[in-house]
């Protein structure tokens, strides 16, 4: 099978970029021909570039021509879109339709229904635009990068393509990452028959232990946070949990982001610098090693999340996650089976769950074993390949 992947890469590498690359490699390993047409936000440099990008984010004729040319060259059986915003734009769907090539679109976030793509505003979940035909509230609240102008571009793009029925008529199948996300998108008006749930997978299986680890190597017990240091990730909640109970095992924080300085100041002011350690960005091997040593993964996000690969990596390492009882996280992690839930934005409850897992080693080990089993049952490359091919076969049969 020939697959043409289309992807708009971010300036700062994100989870979508990694998933696109992992799927391309997976398909190639199974003998498929994969061609990737990738554009990058690194190309948006000058004020003229930014102005053109704003206009073309709604509908880009250059991107449409570029995709049409590549389709003519490659003659793909399927076009798989990962991210079209902002340089490719929804015009690429017309290019595919004009040449009769079926389209699969992975929905890594809530871009098709939310200006910010996160259903998140003012530090809390927001569904104000979910069932509206025009997301004007996203402009009113300047949801995209705190800019009314940039938010208006996104709102115009969404309204234009809802009016044109682009999503209904020009996309043959959408991939949602969880059933929770699928239900939210159905609520927003996307066609239920075209929404197929397929999770992300862990492409680095060779780096994982053969069986679940029980953590605690030659080090003091600790729990681990891995992620971007920004408000929606809820790391401030984890720090507040330690303010509530300083006797908890140590917390190692892996990652960087706009809130790092503020969070370090918060830790220092609370006298927790010996208990909470900021490790900054770490390469994947170092992250997996930490996961194999930790007691638990702390994942306190306060937004719905898409499908955090960090949780799957934890499963693969036999590391039980402690997650917010919210959105996709509450679906992926089964409370008291392969991890624990805590009440979203509640540092006292989070502290209780960390204390529980630290004080009950047999319980921690049972969760660790179940976490590893979850990875083996649901998130291996082979299982994900079968799910992806089933979706491709479905759209080819319809086409």
TrEMBL record:
Domain Glycosyl transferase family: 218-372
Residues covered by the Glycosyltransferase subfamily 4-like N-terminal domain: 27-202
Source organism superkingdom: Bacteria
Gene3D superfamilies xref list: Glycogen Phosphorylase B (3.40.50.2000)
Protein name in UniProt: Glycosyltransferase family 4 protein
Organism: Romeriopsis navalis LEGE 11480
GO molecular function: glycosyltransferase activity
InterPro entries: Glyco_trans_1 (IPR001296), Glyco_trans_4-like_N (IPR028098), Glycosyltransferase_grp1 (IPR050194)
């Amino acid at each position: 099978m020939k697959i043409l992947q289309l992807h708009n890469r971010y300036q700062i590498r994100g989870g979508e970029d990694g998933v696109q690359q992992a799927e391309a490699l997976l398909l190639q390993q199974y003998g498929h021909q994969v061609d990737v047409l990738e554009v990058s936000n690194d190309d948006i440099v000058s004020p003229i570039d930014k102005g053109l990008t704003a206009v073309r984010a709604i509908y880009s004729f250059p991107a449409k021509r570029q995709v049409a040319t590549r389709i003519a060259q490659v003659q793909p059986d399927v076009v798989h879109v990962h991210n079209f915003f902002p340089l490719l734009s929804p015009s690429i769907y017309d290019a595919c339709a004009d040449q009769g090539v079926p389209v699969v679109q992975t929905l890594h976030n809530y871009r098709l229904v939310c200006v910010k793509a996160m259903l998140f505003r003012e530090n809390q979940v927001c569904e104000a635009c979910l069932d509206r035909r025009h997301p004007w509230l996203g402009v009113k609240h300047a949801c995209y990068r705190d800019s009314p102008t940039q938010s208006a571009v996104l709102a115009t793009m969404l309204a234009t393509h809802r009016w044109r029925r682009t999503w209904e008529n020009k996309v043959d199948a959408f991939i949602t990452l969880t059933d929770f996300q699928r239900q939210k998108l159905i609520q927003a008006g996307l066609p239920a028959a075209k929404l197929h749930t397929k999770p992300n997978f862990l492409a680095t299986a060779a780096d994982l232990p053969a069986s679940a680890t029980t953590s605690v190597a030659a080090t003091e017990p600790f729990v681990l946070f891995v992620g971007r240091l920004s408000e929606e990730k809820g790391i401030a909640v984890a720090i507040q949990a330690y303010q509530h109970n300083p006797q908890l095992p140590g917390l190692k924080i892996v990652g960087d982001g706009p809130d790092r300085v503020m969070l370090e100041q918060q830790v220092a002011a609370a006298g927790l610098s010996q208990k909470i350690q900021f490790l900054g960005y770490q390469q994947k091997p170092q992250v997996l090693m930490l996961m194999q040593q930790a007691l638990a993964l702390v994942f306190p996000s306060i937004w719905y999340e898409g499908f955090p690969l960090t949780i799957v990596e934890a499963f693969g390492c036999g590391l039980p996650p402690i997650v917010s009882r919210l959105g996709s996280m509450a679906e992926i992690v089964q409370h008291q089976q392969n991890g624990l839930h805590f009440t979203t934005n509640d540092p006292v409850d989070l502290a209780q769950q960390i204390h529980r897992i630290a004080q009950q080693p047999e319980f921690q080990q049972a969760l660790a074993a179940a976490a590893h089993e979850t990875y083996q049952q649901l998130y291996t490359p082979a299982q994900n390949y079968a799910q992806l091919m089933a979706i491709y076969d479905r759209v080819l049969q319809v086409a």
